[in-house]
Amino acid sequence: MTLARVVVVRNTNNAMANSPKYILIRTLLIAVTVIVIGLKSDAQVIINEEPAIIKLMEVYKSKNAQSPIVRAWRIQIMATSDRMEMEQAYKKFEILYPHIEYTWEHNPPYYQVRVGAYERKADLEATLLEMKQDFPLSIPVQDDIAKRDLVEF
User: How many Å apart are CA 63 and CA 115, to the nearest integer?
Assistant: First the structure.
């Protein structure tokens, strides 16, 4: 039987990579590199617009600012010639949907109850499906709506 002497040597190469001091130095070096590169890059984007386009945009903005009304969408939940039936419908609507504005009009011989204010027809589809459960005759209709009514806060 022969005896052998075994010496255990610790490998310090990998231990160095995971030491907190090494990680801190490496992180600082990367941060300094990013900051130096960021300060040296003076990249600017220059947009050259045609004078005719600038003028058209100004005309568009001024005309748009002058008109407070826009053609948009509402949901019509009721159209009837009976005023009592119309009043019952909008009272029911007030109870079920207190967060949605409604209007009613009398376009002889019909009373119409219209709710909501949507810029695009696609915007009202989900609400329309929900309302059809309570008001099965609900349909989307176009209407002249004040721009301030389209803004949601």
Answer: 28
Strand blocks (E) in the chain: 69-80, 102-107, 110-118, 139-146
| Average predicted confidence (pLDDT) for the chain | 84
What are the sequence ranges of the domains in the chain? 68-150
Of 8-17, 58-67, 97-106, least confident by mean pLDDT is 8-17
68-150: which CATH number, 3.30.70.1070, 3.40.50.970, 3.40.1010.20, 3.40.50.150?
A: 3.30.70.1070
CB neighbour class for 86 (10 Å; exposed up to 12, middle 13-18, buried from 19): buried
Q: What is the pTM of this model?
A: 0.57
Distance CA 74, CA 145 (A): 9
